[in-house]
Amino acid sequence: QVQLVESGGGLVQAGGSLRLSCAASGTIFSINAMGWYRQAPGKLRELVAVITSGGNTNYGDSVKGRFTISRDNAKNTGYLQMNNLKPEDTAVYYCNAVGQQVTGRLFNYWGQGTQVSVSS
């Protein structure tokens, strides 16, 4: 089993910053990719950013230049630094991890989500 625990969400004014963390634990052999997705009320879940084990990154168009994804492979932890936040960034942010367990079984897990609210 693999568990993902997110932290760092909260309420911030427009223009402010937040840093989300996602700590993965359990029977992990390797994490190929860690990503952040978000879902606002009445909208579909969308990609925010993803990072591979090699450090390659991909961002959603709406966050490019404002958000930065990173990871600490030794700690199996991913981060999302969010700067210049806008009210439209308000959503529940979910961490996702794809990898391989020590048994050889592949996994694809989601965190429980953390609320990010940006006031105007």
Uncertain segments: none
What is the SS-derived class?
mainly beta
Number of DSSP helical runs: 0
Total beta strands: 11
**What portion of residues is helical?**
under 10%
Strand portion, in percent? over 45%
Q: Summarize the main sheet.
A: 7 strands, mixed
Structural features, described:
The chain has 120 residues and is mainly beta. The chain is 0% helix and 62% strand. It contains no helices and 11 strands. It has strands at residues 2-7, 10-13, 18-26, 28-39, 46-52, 57-59, 67-72, 77-82, 91-101, 106-110, 114-119. Strands 2, 4, 5, 6, 9, 10 and 11 form a 7-stranded mixed β-sheet that branches. The protein is elongated, with a radius of gyration of 14 Å. 28% of the residues are buried. The mean pLDDT is 96.
Keywords:
single chain; about 120 residues; mainly beta; seven-stranded mixed sheet; four-stranded antiparallel sheet; about 0% helix; elongated
Task: Give a topology summary.
Layout: E1 2-7, E2 10-13, E3 18-26, E4 28-39, E5 46-52, E6 57-59, E7 67-72, E8 77-82, E9 91-101, E10 106-110, E11 114-119
Parallel strand pairs: 2-11
Antiparallel strand pairs: 1-3, 3-8, 4-5, 4-9, 5-6, 7-8, 9-10, 9-11
